[in-house]
């Protein structure tokens, strides 16, 4: 989850350019980013699609095109249903845990006051750390023999966190949430701050309490932000690899082997680049499908959110 | 020139430069005129890296015309890196590896040089232990030079913990089974095992299979005979392994312990675990990290004990018969000559031998026994005796098999230890990838 689209900001339409001259300048300004995107985004993607119709072990100088062989191998791989299930489970659970907590934290931090700002600094610390560093730290803390529980002599903390199938998934969701809630809180903080104060004032006059205001004003007003944040969470969860790889390497057994881990193991450990590429294509398609679906759920983007403001 | 054209050109050049920079990690581009300038990739870290560097420095000093440039990588990172480099034609001149199935895949891809001619020189070949050439040979031809050390896998134990509990070192597998509840009763894990790394669990299977059924079963698997795993002794061995898991023979949370961080070693030298099955390189790690544990005589070792009623020869061992250096077939003629000269001079000289002895290892170079005089002498003598006395010195399974079969093997081994597959399912899954 490294490439983050900016949150939906419902700003003004960009002013139309006046003529051909400024258009051509714009084209030149877009070019560097466009070239990078084509070379490092589109070209490798096409390469992966091509590889999924080929057989290659990663080291032979020639790559044989073998039609659907790799697709058949990938789709009949006995590990695939489990990988799909694990990926779905991580996606659903991490969304369920992260969304409510992020909205609450974001709303809390949106109000300007000194102690909230002070706390916010601590909430954002995980944002500064890389996934690998987070995973290594948690792995050490959770070690049943040398970790926090063993060190402090607290038996409740001394579980086999990463060594039992269900606990490992739960631990993974916890670490993912710990890492990404700050980011999503930040998005929600911005969204809540954009809600006109007059709406709350009107609600207060009508006698609505804090809770009522939250459900009847805040939540509906940040609807589009929820869609954006959910898209980032859901699509981002498809690509969790570094965290899982360092924490559990897909284990115990195959309990945390998500699609991205399965892809890596097939491609770089089993030297089956064809089937690994087929899984990569599946990941891309699922990602595109999910973001389109979420956009549709979000409704038409031209609806006004400012009714009554 | 029109402005538009100029911009297109410079944008193209920038993109080209960016792409070239990406590909530049490989040393292929560092060709200089005149004498050969071979590149060399290997593993970083103690105990090996200083002696690898020393050999290259010696060679460069003695041969001012040619130059070998080393680059070192972490173990797991190197395994992926070298494959990617080979596929992209960016391989170094000298390719470090483990021989066996990995080397075979390089040979089939035409990536490594045939060295049979070089070792036709009996004087050169005679300087290396004969048993080390097996894993370097593919279809009767030698494609790699055995280098560095012989690494059998042995059973280590913590003598202090054994004294504390009042038990003696096991002589048979039956003794091990008796010891397990005794250690568990004292809150000490009987065995330390880094289960997340998977190849660590594999070391257990290698010995359990060998002691139960002899070395023939895996020989058949290696030869690609269909249904080789269906031997009843395999089922028996797998059941025994699952029994060990069920009796809590391994530390709590072993499935999430990773060997990369040496957490398994730490369990043994801190006395949280009583025994451990591990490669001979573990000695160097225990010595470096365990404080006074090794110097005070806390570490004991032995060949894996025989299993009552088993068919295997108790002298058999498993491990790495050596490390291996190959020459890239894509290197220039001058670079290849440099590499061959490195093989036939520096890598077989007395300093090389003395260096690896000093590292605490048993060199693949013959006639090293007289050099075992330091602190590690007893360990080295024992390892040398195990390696030389073994009726069969089998190569680690994951190195012997093709990468594809090895991955399925490791996956199923991890599931076996999780009790996620039954012995029968394991046999069926593994029969499915024989010869692949």
From TrEMBL, chain A:
Residues 84-294 form the ABC transmembrane type-1 domain. It is found in: Cell membrane. Residues 1-20 are annotated as: Disordered. The chain crosses the membrane at residues 25-54, 83-105, 117-141, 161-181, 224-248, 268-294. Keywords: Cell membrane, Membrane, Transmembrane, Transmembrane helix, Transport. It is a multi-pass membrane protein. Pfam families: BPD_transp_1 (PF00528). Belongs to the binding-protein-dependent transport system permease family. This is Sugar ABC transporter permease.
UniProtKB/TrEMBL annotation, chain B:
Residues 1-20 form the signal peptide. The keyword Iron-sulfur does not apply. PROSITE patterns: PROKAR_LIPOPROTEIN. It comes from the Bacteria. Keywords: Signal. The keyword Signal applies. Pfam families: SBP_bac_1. This is Extracellular solute-binding protein. It comes from Actinoplanes flavus.
């Amino acid at each position: 989850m490294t490439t983050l689209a900016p949150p939906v900001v419902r700003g003004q339409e960009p002013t139309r350019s006046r003529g051909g001259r400024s258009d051509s300048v714009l084209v030149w300004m877009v070019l560097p980013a466009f070239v990078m995107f084509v070379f490092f985004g589109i070209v490798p993607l096409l390469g992966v699609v091509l590889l999924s119709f080929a057989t290659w072990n990663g080291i032979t100088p020639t790559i044989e095109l073998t039609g659907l062989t790799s697709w058949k191998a990938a789709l009949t791989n006995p590990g695939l249903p489990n990988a799909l299930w694990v990926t779905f489970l991580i996606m659903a659970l991490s969304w369920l845990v992260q969304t409510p907590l992020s909205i609450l934290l974001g709303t809390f931090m949106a109000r300007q006051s000194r102690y909230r700002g002070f706390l916010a600094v601590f909430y954002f610390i995980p944002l500064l750390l890389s996934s690998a560093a987070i995973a290594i730290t948690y792995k050490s803390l959770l070690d049943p023999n040398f970790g926090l529980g063993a060190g402090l002599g607290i038996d409740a903390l001394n579980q086999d966190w990463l060594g039992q199938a269900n606990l490992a998934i739960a631990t993974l969701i916890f670490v993912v949430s710990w890492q990404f809630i700050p980011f999503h809180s930040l998005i929600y903080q911005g969204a809540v701050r954009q809600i006109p104060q007059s709406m709350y004032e009107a609600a207060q006059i009508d006698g609505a309490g804090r809770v009522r205001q939250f459900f009847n004003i805040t939540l509906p007003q940040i609807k589009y932000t929820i869609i954006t944040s959910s898209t980032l969470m859901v699509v981002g969860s498809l690509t969790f690899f570094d965290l899982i790889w360092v924490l559990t390497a897909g284990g115990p057994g195959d309990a945390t082997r998500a699609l991205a881990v399965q892809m890596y193991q097939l491609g770089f450990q089993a030297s089956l680049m064809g089937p690994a590429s087929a899984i990569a294509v599946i990941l891309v398609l699922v990602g595109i499908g999910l973001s389109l679906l979420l956009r549709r759920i979000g409704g038409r983007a031209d609806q006004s959110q400012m009714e009554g403001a | 020139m029109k402005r538009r054209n100029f911009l297109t050109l410079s944008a193209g050049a920038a993109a080209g430069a960016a792409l070239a920079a990406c590909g530049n990690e490989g040393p292929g581009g560092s060709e200089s005129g005149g004498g050969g300038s071979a590149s060399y990739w290997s593993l970083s870290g103690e105990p090996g890296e200083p002696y690898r560097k020393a050999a290259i420095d010696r060679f460069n000093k003695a041969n001012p015309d040619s130059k070998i440039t080393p680059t070192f990588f972490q173990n797991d990172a190197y395994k992926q890196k070298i494959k990617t480099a080979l596929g992209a034609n960016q391989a170094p001149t000298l390719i470090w590896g483990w021989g066996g199935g990995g080397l075979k895949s390089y040979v089939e891809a035409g990536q490594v040089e045939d060295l049979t001619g070089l070792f036709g020189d009996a004087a050169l070949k005679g300087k290396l232990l004969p048993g080390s050439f097996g894993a370097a040979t593919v279809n009767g031809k030698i494609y790699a030079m055995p280098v560095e050390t012989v690494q059998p896998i042995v059973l280590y134990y913590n003598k202090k913990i054994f004294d504390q509990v009042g038990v003696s070192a096991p002589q048979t597998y039956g003794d091990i089974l008796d010891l397990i509840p005794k250690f568990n009763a004292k809150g000490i894990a009987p065995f330390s095992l880094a289960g997340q790394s998977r190849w660590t669990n594999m070391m257990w299977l290698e010995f359990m299979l060998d002691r139960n059924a002899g070395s023939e079963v895996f020989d058949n698997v290696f030869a690609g005979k269909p249904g080789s795993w269906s031997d009843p002794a395999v089922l028996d061995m797998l059941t025994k392994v699952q029994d060990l898991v069920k009796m809590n023979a391994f530390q709590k949370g072993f499935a999430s312990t990773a060997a990369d961080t040496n957490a398994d070693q730490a369990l043994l030298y801190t006395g949280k675990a009583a025994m451990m099955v591990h490669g001979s390189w573990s000695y160097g790690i225990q010595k470096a990290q365990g404080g006074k544990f090794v110097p005070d005589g806390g570490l004991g070792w032995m060949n894996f004990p025989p299993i009552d009623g088993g068919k295997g020869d108790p002298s058999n061992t498993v491990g790495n018969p050596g490390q291996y250096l190959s020459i890239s077939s894509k290197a220039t003629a001058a670079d290849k000559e440099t590499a061959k000269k490195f093989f036939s001079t520096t890598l077989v000289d007395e300093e090389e031998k003395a260096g690896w002895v000093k590292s605490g290892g048993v060199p693949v170079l013959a006639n090293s026994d007289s050099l075992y005089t330091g602190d590690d002498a007893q360990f080295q003598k024992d390892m040398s005796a195990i390696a030389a006395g073994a009726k069969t010195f089998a190569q680690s399974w994951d190195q012997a098999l093709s990468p594809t079969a090895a991955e399925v093997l490791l996956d199923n081994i991890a599931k076996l230890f999780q009790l996620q597959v039954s012995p029968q399912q394991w046999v069926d899954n593994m029969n499915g990838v024989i010869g692949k």
